[in-house]
Predict the structure of ABC transporter ATP-binding protein YtrE.
Amino acid sequence: MVAPPDNDVLWARSLHHSHSGSPALTGVSVGVREGEILAVGGPRGSGKTTLLRCLSGTLVPDEGEVWYNSGPVHTLGPVARERLRRDRFGWIDPEPTLVPELCAWENAALPLLLRGVAQRTAKKAALEWLERLDVDTCAKKRPHALLQAQRQRVAIARALITEPAVLFVDEPTATLHRVDRAQVLRTLLTAARSHRITTLLATHDTDVAALADRTVVLIDGRRVNSRENTGTSDAEGIAACSLSV
Ligand SMILES: Nc1ncnc2c1ncn2[C@@H]1O[C@H](COP(=O)(O)OP(=O)(O)OP(=O)(O)O)[C@@H](O)[C@H]1O
């Protein structure tokens, strides 16, 4: 094994992974710097989710290495990987999966309550995150009484409440309307930046990718390019990357 570069908090080399014999990643290498917001772009089915799942230790790649903070992840057993995910990583899915029996603040507080944090402390932290995410007025409502955008904000609060070292975000606004999408993304990325949370954001939307510091693009399970974002739309850049395959 070759040790990863010192300045990358998360690093992967030559990842290969197939789902039931169908290749999803075919030799992807990537490094993420501490505090960086990295977009993983590319069309649907290009391997973005599979890459995030390998990097977060949810999936063990068929081949290749994943390192977090200079420690190998790909050689860890299931219990150690689960502990790493619980203690250091956060994950936001395209569809918010909240516990239906719990109200919004209880859902947001859940990771702290499961760690044994006192209810009063966990509730205070949850209410603060719900306020930052503009859903504090929904704190006592259960998921069925919330709009989809509100549910997603509660799921984001739940992912951020532990202030994870690395946040994995998979198409977080896929199910939202355009206006909600922009607001939710801006709030999420502002929170990640202000807490220096290293963030990997999988998205097929070039406008979303343009909000990150840098974009790596996957096509058919291969990395085709990487570029620093300039703050303007990346549409042309990603289109150009696609043409270079
Ligand atoms: N559990 C699975 N079983 C079988 N094939 C899968 C599974 N998960 C993903 N795949 C396949 O692996 C390839 C990569 O999928 P993946 O979800 O990683 O891509 P993606 O870029 O995240 O796509 P999307 O934007 O649609 O979420 C696709 O061809 C997909 O159909």
In short: The domain at 8-94+165-243 is CATH 3.40.50.300 (Rossmann fold). The two ends are 29 Å apart (CA to CA). The beta strands are 8-19, 22-33, 37-41, 63-68, 71-72, 89-92, 166-170, 198-202, 214-219, 222-228.
